[in-house]
Specification:
Blueprint: H1 3-14, H2 27-46, E1 57-62, H3 68-79, E2 83-88, H4 100-110, E3 113-117, H5 121-130, E4 135-139, H6 145-159, E5 166-170, H7 175-186, E6 190-194, H8 203-216, E7 219-223, H9 226-230, E8 235-238, H10 250-256, H11 264-267, E9 275-278, H12 290-293, H13 300-319
Parallel strand pairs: 1-2, 1-3, 3-4, 5-6, 5-8, 6-7, 8-9
Helix pairs in contact: 2-6, 2-13, 3-13, 4-5, 6-7, 6-13, 7-8
C-alpha cells in the first residue's frame, strides 16, 4: 500500500470518530493528525483558505474554565469556516438533573460536533455513547489529549522527528502525564516520569503504555528521582503541582513536591539542546524556576499556539 492510499484510508477512518483519549487511536492516526495540524498551520500562516468545516457548528461544553481551550477551539472553528457555540454548565440542563444521554441526544440534533471540558472522564465517555456526532475531550481529570497533540506537533517542528526522543516529566502523575505517556509510547519515544510516592500515574495507563512501547521501540521509566528521569532528556516537561479541582491540597502538595522543581540545577542533567515544555498556566517559582520557563530552551508559547492548529486538525478530520 502506497503512502497516499494509507493517508486516504486513515482520513476515512477518522471521519465521525470521537476523540476522547489517545489510547483509542493508532500510531498511524496520531501521526496523521500531527502532520495535518502542521499543514493547516502552514495554510493559516500563508493566508490560504481552508474552510473545510463551512456550515458546521461545534458545541463547546465547559464545566471547567479555560483560557487556551476556549479561545483555540472557537478561533479554530472560525478559521475552518464554521462556528462555535459556548455552553457553560449554567447554560445546560445537566446542572438541573438532565441525564448525559438526553443531553447528548438533543445536542446531536443541533450540532455537528461537541467539545467538552469537565472533571470526570466517565461523563465524556457517556456523552460520546449518547451522541450521534463526534465528541472531543477538551480535558478531564484522566486525560488531556488535545494538549498532547499540540505538544508533539511542537516537538516535531523543533526537532524534525519524534521516534527515539526522550521526554522527561517531573511532577504530579496527572491527566497530562497519562496523555503524554500514552502518546509517547505510540510514537516510539522514551518517556520517564519522576514523582513523589502517592502521586504516580494510573497503573493501567502505565501498563498499556509499556505494552505499546514494546511494539514501537520506545520505553517507559517510573522513578522517584528527578535526576534519573531527566538524564539525557530531549524534552523536559512539568505541570502545576495542584491541578484544577485539587486546590485544597495546595499546601500538602507543596511539601510533597518540594524536591521536584524543574530549575537550573536539575536541567543540567538533560541534553544541552533540551526543550522545556509546560501546558500552562504555570506557577513560576513553584514547579519551575523563572530562569527555566523564561529561558532560551523554553517553547511554552509555541505549544500554546499549536493548540489552535492541532485542534483544527482534530475537528477537521472528525467532523468533516
Amino acid at each position: 500500500m502506497n503512502s497516499s492510499t494509507l493517508q486516504e484510508e486513515i482520513a476515512v477512518q477518522l471521519k465521525g470518530k470521537d476523540f476522547l483519549a489517545l489510547v483509542d487511536y493508532t500510531s498511524e492516526e496520531i501521526e496523521y493528525l500531527i502532520h495535518y495540524g502542521i499543514e493547516l498551520k502552514r495554510k493559516q500562516k500563508a493566508g490560504e483558505p481552508h474552510a473545510v468545516l463551512a456550515g458546521k457548528t461545534l458545541g463547546m461544553v465547559f464545566e471547567k474554565s479555560s483560557t487556551r481551550t476556549r479561545v483555540s477551539f472557537e478561533v479554530g472553528m472560525y478559521q475552518l469556516g464554521g462556528q462555535a457555540l459556548f455552553l457553560s454548565k449554567n447554560d445546560l440542563q445537566l446542572g438541573r438533573g438532565e441525564t448525559v444521554w438526553d443531553t447528548a441526544q438533543t445536542l446531536s440534533r443541533y450540532l455537528d460536533g461537541i467539545m467538552i471540558r469537565t472533571y470526570e472522564h466517565r461523563k465524556v465517555i457517556d456523552l460520546a455513547r449518547g451522541a450521534t456526532v463526534p465528541v472531543i475531550n477538551g480535558l478531564t481529570d484522566y486525560a488531556h489529549p488535545c494538549q498532547v497533540m499540540a505538544d508533539y506537533q511542537t516537538v516535531l517542528e523543533k526537532k524534525g522527528h519524534l521516534k527515539g526522543l526522550k521526554v522527561a516529566y517531573i511532577g504530579d502523575g496527572n491527566n497530562m502525564v497519562h496523555s503524554l505517556m500514552m502518546g509517547a509510547s505510540k510514537l516510539g519515544m522514551d518517556f520517564a516520569i519522576a514523582s513523589p510516592e502517592g502521586y504516580d500515574p494510573d497503573a493501567e495507563v502505565i501498563q498499556m503504555s509499556k505494552d505499546n512501547a514494546a511494539q514501537t521501540g520506545g520505553s517507559i521509566l517510573i522513578s522517584r528521582d528527578p535526576r534519573e528521569a531527566i538524564e539525557n532528556a530531549d524534552i523536559v516537561y512539568t505541570d502545576v503541582w495542584a491541578s484544577m479541582g485539587f486546590e485544597d491540597e495546595q499546601k500538602e502538595r507543596e511539601i510533597a513536591f518540594k524536591n521536584y522543581q524543574v530549575n537550573e540545577a536539575l536541567v543540567k542533567y538533560a541534553k544541552q539542546d533540551y526543550l522545556f515544555m509546560h501546558c500552562l498556566p504555570a506557577h513560576r517559582g513553584e514547579e519551575v524556576s523563572e530562569g527555566v520557563i523564561d529561558g532560551a530552551h523554553s517553547i511554552i508559547f509555541d505549544q500554546a499556539e499549536n493548540r489552535l492548529h492541532a485542534q483544527k486538525a482534530i475537528m477537521a478530520a472528525t467532523m468533516r
